[in-house]
Amino acid sequence: MELMRNFIGNEWTEGSSRIRNINPSDTSDVIGFYASADAAATNAAIEAAAAASFSWSRSTPEVRSDILDKIGTEILARREELGTLLSREEGKILSEGTGEVVRAGRVFKFFAGEALRLNGERVRSARPGVDIDVVREPEGVIGLITPWNFPIAIPAWKIAPALAYGNCVVFKPAEIVPGSAWALSEIISRSGLPEGVFNLVMGPGSKVGQALVDHPKVRAISFTGSVPTGSRIGLACFQSGKKIQMEMGGKNPLVVLNDADLDLAINTAVNGAFFSTGQRCTASSRLIVEDGIHDRFVEGVVAKLSKLRVGHALEKASEIGPVVSESQFEQDLDYVRLGKEEGARLAFGGERLNREHPGYYMSPALFVETSNDMRINREEIFGPVATVIRARNYDDALEIANDTQFGLSSGICTTSLKYAEDFKHKSAAGMVMVNLPTAGVDYHVPFGGRKGSSYGPREQGAYAREFYTSVKTAYTLA
């Protein structure tokens, strides 16, 4: 197989080693080999970006807009091809993979427009004869570190605003999903960007990520990943004066009240908790159900899970694909064992499944009779595992929902306008859903959470400018 290389200073370069990309739906299927960069290669990419930064920051908004629009157009035109690649390497079913590609294309199209909409202010001074201009300028070289669960959408919503606002990029994707990142980077490489503006460095976080954090010419880091890694990166960036944006874990609650539409609540819970194999930071991992509807809700969810088809990501009949990797699969099974040890009752699933092809197949697991102090309700599992917590009433459910170190997304199923409005105001999460899954957000509005889930300015939409630009206030004696 051809080695897919890193992209540094407009040249495709080999790495110090190679990454073997495996299909989790069929572990005998090798998708390809990808060059793995080291610290030296990463430093070369940073220097290339720094060299290009001055001229790119002064490019016209129209130039940046045209390039981003061109990238978005090609992504959308190749949605089936790229969606198949994504599903093949990450394991989400084909409809989800293709949908993610479409989202990436639309993100680039959106920021093509935002490049033309960046504006400033002319302010009257408190002093006579003085004019004040407030403008936004690019930060410079930005390091982007992305996770494996959305291998083209998350890179898109970091790369597109970075370029739109005149920054240069060094992009480090997750090691286990290099294919989608490489394909996106290959499209970007032909878009007309000047040399050094965009760079791809694939490889381990211990080398590539650390080099990005350490290098003095990297002015900002946007990171999506685990809490422990984010904490280390955040501390290092604070010590070196880098701007930091972090999206980390979630333990998202879905509250189901007695007055909820039962069928809607069941479908909302199953979608939010288990689709995309539960491998979403916004997944509904805690289902907090009011006492009066609890038993019927659990019965309905179990019935729904029993009919879900877990299978190869590219098979049309599949509704849930495999877990992304062996290590993640073993972690999920460990949490199932832990839940049993903690005294929770496994109402459904949590087992290794055998299919026609060797892969990391797991039946969706539902725990009941759980309490919010159990580790399975405190720690992010990041797999097809959800728990049910019984609540006495709305106030009890709200208290349980907010009793977590995380605060990314939350949801409520109710027909009561009173409770829906109260929950929107009192939920300690950055995103709140009413009668909708906690997972599933639009690309043109802010994305992010509170507490241990997020740190720094929001991602996506017009709010992305808060991270990717710096405000300058200029005074002039008239």
From TrEMBL:
<dbReference type="InterPro" id="IPR016161">
    <property type="entry name" value="Ald_DH/histidinol_DH"/>
</dbReference>
<feature type="domain" description="Aldehyde dehydrogenase">
    <location>
        <begin position="12"/>
        <end position="473"/>
    </location>
</feature>
<protein>
    <submittedName>
        <fullName>Aldehyde dehydrogenase family protein</fullName>
    </submittedName>
</protein>
<dbReference type="InterPro" id="IPR029510">
    <property type="entry name" value="Ald_DH_CS_GLU"/>
</dbReference>
<dbReference type="InterPro" id="IPR016163">
    <property type="entry name" value="Ald_DH_C"/>
</dbReference>
<feature type="active site">
    <location>
        <position position="247"/>
    </location>
</feature>
<dbReference type="InterPro" id="IPR015590">
    <property type="entry name" value="Aldehyde_DH_dom"/>
</dbReference>
<dbReference type="Pfam" id="PF00171">
    <property type="entry name" value="Aldedh"/>
</dbReference>
<dbReference type="InterPro" id="IPR016162">
    <property type="entry name" value="Ald_DH_N"/>
</dbReference>
<dbReference type="InterPro" id="IPR016160">
    <property type="entry name" value="Ald_DH_CS_CYS"/>
</dbReference>
<keyword id="KW-0560">Oxidoreductase</keyword>
<comment type="similarity">
    <text>Belongs to the aldehyde dehydrogenase family.</text>
</comment>
